[in-house]
Amino acid sequence: MTTELDRLELELRSVPGVVAVGYSGEGERLAVHVVAVASRAVADLADRVQRAVHLCAEPVELDLLLDVQA
């Protein structure tokens, strides 16, 4: 799973506006946390992040935080 998470992190960090990626969870329940800055984000940010997360073989919970203050 580590290689898959490394690929996922690289894919997510390549999306314009994404500034941080993290993971949490235990066992089969994995949560992917993505932080993006609104002023740098592309219009289809949510779609691109969601497509990247769907590359995972295991189901994941997605937490997308959009920072509008930065």
Explain the overall architecture.
- The chain is of the alpha+beta class and 70 residues long.
- It contains two helices and three strands.
- The chain has a three-stranded mixed sheet, covered by helices on one side.
- The termini are far apart.
- The model has no long low-confidence stretch (mean pLDDT 89).
Based on CA atoms alone, the radius of gyration comes out at 12 Å
Number of helical regions: 2
Whole-number tally of structural domains: 1
Classified by CATH, the class is Alpha Beta
Strand fraction equals 35-45%
Along the chain, the helix and strand elements come as HEEHE
Mean pLDDT: 89
Strand order of the largest sheet: 1-2-3
Q: Report the CATH architecture.
A: 2-Layer Sandwich
Q: Please give the largest β-sheet.
A: 3 strands, mixed
Per CATH, the superfamily is ANL, C-terminal domain
Number of strands: 3
Tag the structure with descriptive keywords.
single chain; 70 residues; alpha+beta; GMP Synthetase, Chain A, domain 3; three-stranded mixed sheet; 3 strands; globular
List the helices and strands and how they pair.
Elements: H1 2-13, E1 18-26, E2 29-37, H2 45-53, E3 60-67
Parallel strand pairs: 2-3
Antiparallel strand pairs: 1-2
